[in-house]
Amino acid sequence: MTLRILPKALCAPSLTQVRETTSFATMSMASTVGVNRASGETVYWLALALTDGLGPSRARQLVGRFGTAEKVFRASLTELEATGMRAVSAQAVATGKSLELAQEELAKAAEAKAKIISLSDPEYPPRLKEIYDPPVVLFVKGDVALLSQPGIAMVGTRHPTPYGTGMAERLATDLAARGLVIISGLARGIDTASHRGAVATKGKTIAVLGTGIDIFYPRENTRLGEQILALGGSMISEFPIGTAPTPQNFPIRNRIISGMSVGVLVVEAAEYSGTRITSRCALEQNRDVYAVPGNVTNKNSWGPNTLIKQGAKLVATWEDVWEELPADAQVVLRSLQCESPEPVNASLFPDEVRSPHEQKILKLLKPDQSTHIDELVEMLENEMSSSEIFAALFELELNGKVRQLPGKNFVKSFCSF
């Protein structure tokens, strides 16, 4: 993946001009680096990431050849061209244009209150370094240390059933309550439910964006993103500040979601979906794959059910994930549990309500099938008035025991928050 920022037109500079430009850019960045708290080497990695026509693989090869990212920028144009890199890329590096772009990006990152870490930075996620094509730089908002803690990726369709939404929230809540970081993409559907489950138990979650770190997408998840950060979570992106939510970015970022995790949990996914990409990345990265079984007549069950047939671990409760975690992850999580109170197991279908009206309504609702408000009124017409039904539903919604879907349809929640 090449991080592209279109360069300004350049006249052919003299060798003296090249040295002066590079020196000026390097010195100017020194003050900006202090604001952004990026290391000197990270600045050069950033410059490589912003070089037109130079992808992550070629950037890593250049650094491997010259020794450090900084030494790449000390090389002459002839030495750079001798590596086989494109002429436009070599010119951008040799003239200092890439360093100027890095300087501008550092200023934008500082304004967005984001930190930039590179492959050479000790804070770079260790599991992400293991994959075939890790991004050379990451833009991070929130707790950077969280990127190195054991996490589980939770992915699925953007159009889940009530069952899928409920299972994602329930599993995320239980796993986050036990110290496991929930990693997802902040997209609609299963991603949103997974983040929301972690937030509900005040657990830690990481949102991997397919946009610039300064853009929440979709917009309706802006508040959720703010909650993630307020509770000590993180948001990360490999794309420059201001990058719009273009379709091709989201499949690219999926390798980061799986690469940072110890395993990938698929809740609901159709036959042709981005979740298949994430699952394939997980297998290529030697990550465990888990799946929640679904109704065989529902198209969203194709993905997880097929994965289970192919050997993925069937998941019904958090214990199914926990017992399969790598030994090193379990050691870290046990140490975290010793430092915090034991989480309380919540009932899968909580029925502890005070009002008799609420109890009657809760018994009629199902977690995997919606019920229209008119049906409830009809079923309870001899026991409750319409106003009493509306009031009871309002209280149940506030307590998280039922969820209202579009069109005045209601479902029973898998858990109460």
Overview of the molecule:
- α9 (162-177) packs parallel to α10 (190-200).
- The protein has a nine-stranded mixed β-sheet with strand order 1-2-6-5-4-3-7-8-9, sandwiched between helices. It has a three-stranded antiparallel β-sheet with strand order 10-12-11.
- It is elongated.
- 48% of the residues are buried.
- It is 46% helix and 11% strand.
- It has 19 helices and twelve strands.
- It folds into three domains: 15-110, no CATH class; 144-338, Rossmann fold (3-Layer(aba) Sandwich); 356-412, Winged helix-like DNA-binding domain superfamily/Winged helix DNA-binding domain (Arc Repressor Mutant, subunit A, Orthogonal Bundle), CATH 1.10.10.
- The protein has helices at 15-36, 40-49, 56-66, 69-72, 77-81, 87-95, 97-111, 126-129, 162-177, 190-200, 222-230, 249-259, 274-284, 302-309, 318-322, 327-338, 356-364, 373-379, 386-398; strands at 115-118, 137-142, 151-155, 181-184, 205-208, 234-237, 263-266, 288-291, 313-314, 371-372, 402-405, 409-412.
- It is of the alpha/beta class.
Which short descriptors sum up this protein?
single chain; 417 residues; alpha/beta; Rossmann fold; Arc Repressor Mutant, subunit A; 3 domains; nine-stranded mixed β-sheet; three-stranded antiparallel β-sheet; 19 helices; 12 strands; elongated
